[in-house]
Amino acid sequence: MKSIDISSKKVVTLRNVESALADGATRVVVGAGCVVTPSARDFLAQHNIALTASGNGKTADPEPAAAHASSGKSGKQGKSAANPRLFSTPEAEAIKKEICAVGRKLWLRQFVDGNGGNISYRIGPNEVICTPTLMSKYDLTPEDLSLVDLEGNQIAGTKPRTSEILLHLEIYKAVPEAKSCVHCHPPHATAYAITGRVPPNLIIPEFEVFIGKVAISPYETPGTAAFAQTVLPYVKQHNTVLLSNHGIICWGDTVTHAEWYTEVLDTYCWTLMLAAQLGVPISHISEQQGADLLANKKRLGLPDVRFDTSKMKECQLSDSEVPNSIALVPEPCDGGTGKPANLDGKPANLDLDALVKSVTDAVMGTLGAK
Ligand SMILES: [Zn+2]
Fold it and tell me: Rounded to the nearest whole angstrom, what is the distance from the C-alpha of residue 257 to the centroid of ligand 1?
């Protein structure tokens, strides 16, 4: 029997065990507590190579990766240990290809820059496939992806998972229907996010049906738990959230659909900007026609804050009657959070008289409230 010691590695990959076989190994010694990827484990089994944890001479835990995940920081009772085998199923392989294709779409549409943006898919109750950190979304291959549990512990894959996975995981924990999240920095939607505005409604039907009311979450440092939690007040009733001074996140039932929402939102914001340059008011869809669209949306099973009649008082079908709603004045629209998060989205093409009247009304409203 020839043993090869690779216990210095924290993650043992297919490549590591392939080279061990090439060196004639019949036994591989790995470090206690290291992660052995599912593909490496399958390869060892196929070639009858024993897997041994260093130090004890015994056969290694048959599921060290799962054990690693269950000993994570969550401390929550009753949650099943993440299953690293879900990372190498035919379904997982198809999802990985879809994520890579979506990554290229995001890059080609200039929705991501540098290593920006991240994509994930919940493949099991406690298992999420995600993109790695520090990679352009154009260059992704299935081998670059990894599997994490809902606490963010990486349980399979060789490249470190994205640091922004916590944002996705908060959404998966809060919204059972969310199967995929796409986060990116599309320029036109991000222009709204850096000016503290959300786009107005009742202008283009596709936007009403697929997205509708957009929320905007307060700024926090990306990658932190505080940042991840900024979206929690909104994600049950919005599939799309503007992240202040950052970008957007969308969730959907598939990776492709979540990416579609990024396109619908950015194109909508872009179209509004172009229309604003024409110097004439934008015409709106009527409230009744808007209600028809909302009914269609309900049939499609898409979320919308306007389905919640208790919030309709604060967040009308159209946003044209929101009081004191001048540009750049934060106006909570989702109710109850107490944070200046969801802003009214007045069209950017207000004429001067309307703007002056709006400012005056806002100031008078503020004075009157004191
Ligand atoms: Zn980002």
Answer: 19
